[in-house]
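Quick one, tokens below. Sequence please?
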């Protein structure tokens, strides 16, 4: 199988070299990409299909046909980093996915896998297989299900109506209704559906072997198509709570919210993530934990206030990415942008879009919020320390401020937690005095995290 890796916004030319892709395979990959929900009206929201090559856009993941896999990695760099390896970027992307989608991925498990030789898709399949194998060794979940059967001896209770109607001419049989402990339940059907799908996606022999072994374990479970799975019937309690994270893993593979599964007559699949959305949700997860116990709460894609009113009808509804509130109301609005900021030497505005500034100013006005933040990912071309630059809105020394900030996605998760906590504290503090909560309570709460 041909495997190629590029980074977002990079281009790969047609050809037979190690850094090229055969044109026939590129055509198939482009067809799969056009079937994605991220493709847009022009069909090039994932890949630009040019005359001399393919160019990635702001969507990452893996696009696969029967004979080729194209992996697209995000440019997740730390302060001062240059020439970051694909293996490092792949590990950081998987970490973001693990946090965002509650995937059971620990650092120890990741170090055992082949970051250099496997694509993102193969690594996620390997991780799923390893976790599922460990889970089934501890026992598959089973529930009592009600059954009806015609038996020579009574089991359970007699179904009188059926006995004297359907079985009236067969007195040697009894119409029985009984409960039986069964593994053919909705949770196991989801796991079997994931195994069946991944068996078609994986190209690694050892992974295929692990999937075959798991298929044998689930042989008594009904093979239900992904579109017919009854997610609503899955109940997690103290007896099967350890399957919660595996269920998140299976949902990632089986639902069409983040991936496309086929492209008509072309045999291919894709597992894709829009980096704008992934960055926003990663920040939301980390910041929610950082604000726990502080008196502040975080909401995402909320607000829903209208910019204009025509009589009593609102128009142009707003949905800020992240809103920080306390009992007094909205205290901070954060808008995440997956864009690469420029250095100040190249551009005094550092590539910050005027439209983004206008948008944040409108949010501050509509939500009566004096503090708004544009949050970008940090990268290697910027100074080592994250950017924290505050601007007064409208006039010098105004109470309303807009902060341009960056978040370094390299390093351990704890450092991301601390950086976002400090960002919020800095935005809500003026000259050592806290806004929103009394200053002593506010400081004590943040120090307690």
């Amino acid at each position: 199988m041909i495997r190629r890796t590029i980074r977002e916004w990079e281009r790969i030319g047609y050809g037979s070299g190690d850094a090229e892709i055969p044109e026939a395979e590129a055509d198939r990959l482009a067809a799969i990409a056009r079937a994605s929900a991220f493709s847009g009206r022009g069909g090039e929201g994932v890949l630009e299909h040019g005359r001399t090559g393919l160019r990635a856009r702001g969507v990452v993941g893996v696009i696969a046909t029967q004979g080729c896999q194209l992996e697209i990695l995000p440019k997740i760099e730390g302060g001062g980093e240059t020439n970051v390896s694909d293996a490092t970027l792949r590990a950081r992307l998987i970490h973001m996915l693990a946090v965002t989608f509650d995937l059971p991925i620990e650092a120890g498990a990741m170090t055992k896998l082949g970051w250099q030789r496997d694509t993102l898709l193969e690594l996620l399949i390997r991780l799923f297989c390893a976790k599922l194998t460990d889970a089934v060794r501890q026992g598959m979940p089973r529930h009592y299900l009600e059954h009806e059967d015609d038996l020579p001896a009574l089991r359970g209770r007699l179904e009188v109506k059926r006995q004297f109607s359907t079985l009236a001419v067969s007195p040697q049989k009894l119409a029985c209704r009984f409960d039986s402990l069964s593994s053919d339940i909705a949770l196991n059907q989801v796991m079997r559906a994931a195994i069946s799908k991944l068996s078609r996606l994986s190209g690694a022999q050892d992974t295929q072997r692990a999937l075959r072994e798991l298929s044998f374990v689930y042989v008594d479970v009904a093979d239900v198509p992904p579109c017919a799975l009854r997610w609503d019937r899955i109940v997690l309690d103290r007896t099967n709570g350890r399957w919660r994270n595996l269920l998140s893993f299976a949902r990632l593979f089986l639902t069409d919210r983040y991936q496309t599964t086929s492209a008509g007559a072309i045999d291919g699949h894709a597992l894709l993530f829009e980096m704008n959305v992934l960055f926003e949700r990663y920040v939301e997860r980390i910041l929610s934990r950082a604000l726990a116990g502080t008196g502040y709460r975080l909401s995402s894609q909320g607000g829903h206030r209208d910019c204009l009113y025509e009589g009593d009808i609102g128009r142009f509804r707003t949905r800020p990415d992240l809103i920080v509130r306390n009992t007094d109301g909205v205290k901070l609005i954060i808008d995440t942008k997956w864009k690469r900021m420029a250095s100040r030497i190249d551009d005094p505005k550092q590539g910050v879009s005027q439209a983004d500034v206008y948008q944040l100013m409108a949010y501050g006005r509509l939500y009566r919020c004096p503090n708004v933040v544009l949050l970008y990912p940090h990268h290697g071309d910027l100074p080592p320390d994250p950017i924290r630059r505050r601007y007064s809105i409208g006039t010098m020394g105004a109470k309303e401020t807009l902060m341009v900030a960056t978040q370094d996605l390299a390093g351990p998760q704890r450092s991301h937690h601390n950086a976002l906590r400090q960002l919020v504290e800095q935005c809500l503090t003026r000259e050592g005095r806290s806004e929103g909560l009394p200053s002593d309570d506010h400081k004590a709460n943040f120090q307690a995290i």
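The chain has three domains: 2-138+205-274, 143-182, 291-448. Residues 143-182 form one domain.
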